[in-house]
Amino acid sequence: MITIYGDSISGNCLKVKWVAERLGVAHEWVEIDIMKGETRTDDFLAINPFGQVPVVAFENGRTLAQSNAIISYLAEGSDLIPDDAFERAKVQEWLFWEQYSHEPAIAVRRFQKLYEKRAEEDIDPALMAKGRRALGRMELALLGNDWIAGGEQMTLADISLLAYTRLAHEGGFDVSEFQAVHGWIARCERELGLPHLHEVTDVQV
After folding, report:
1. Is the alpha carbon torsion for 56, 78, 91, 145 positive or negative?
2. pLDDT tens-digit map of 166-190
3. Which residues 6+ apart lie within 8 Å of 8 measured at CB?
4. Can you list the domains of the chain with their CATH numbers?
5. CA-CA distances (angstroms) from residue 181 to 59, 67, 147, 158?
6. What 3-state DSSP class applies to 28?
7. Close Cβ partners of 32 (under 8 Å, ≥ 6 residues apart)
8. 3-class DSSP assignment, residue 26
9. Which of 44, 122, 148, 155 is most exposed by smallest CB count within 10 Å?
C-alpha cells in the first residue's frame, strides 16, 4: 500500500488520487492542510524536503513528489499510457504544458480568488488572459477529438489537465465559452466516476 499526502483543495493532489483509484492502487490518503502551513512542519519536510503536496510514500521507504511524476509512475504499464512511443511522448508533451502554461494561470487565479479572497482589482489581469489562452489551446486540440492527446481513450494527459480545468470557474473563468472543453470535462468526469460540476445537457459527451 502507498500513502498519498495531499490537500483535497489541490488539483495537483486530486489527479494523484484519481489515478490511484482508476487503477485500483491500494492507498491511504493523509490530508495535509496547506492553508495551515502543514507542508512546512519538520515532520512533513522529513518526508518531502520540497515542502509541497502531493507526495507519495512507498512501503520500502522511498518517496516521490511532483504530481505528474507521481501519476506517470503509478500508471506505468496501464492503459493510461499509450504503447506507441510517439503517442507516449504526446502525452508527456501535454503534462509538461499543463505545469508550465496551464496550472500557473488557472490554478493560481483560483487560489487567489477562492482561498486568499482577493478582490478582482488585486489579481494580476495577466492571469485571466493567460488562462483563457490555455483553455483556447485545449479547445483547438479537442475539436474533433474526444481526448486531449488525440487518441481513442483517456490518458494521463486528460487526468492531469482535468484537475484544474474542472475547477476553473472558481477562478472566474467561464468554461462554457469553450464548448469542446466543456464537453470534454463531462466526458472525463463520466470516465472517472466523478460528479458533474457543469451543466452538460447541451453538449455532446
Report:
1. negative
2. 999 999 999 999 999 999 999 999 9
3. 14, 31
4. 2-74 (3.40.30.10), 85-192 (1.20.1050.10)
5. 38, 22, 10, 11
6. strand
7. 5, 6, 7, 38, 39, 44, 53
8. coil
9. 122
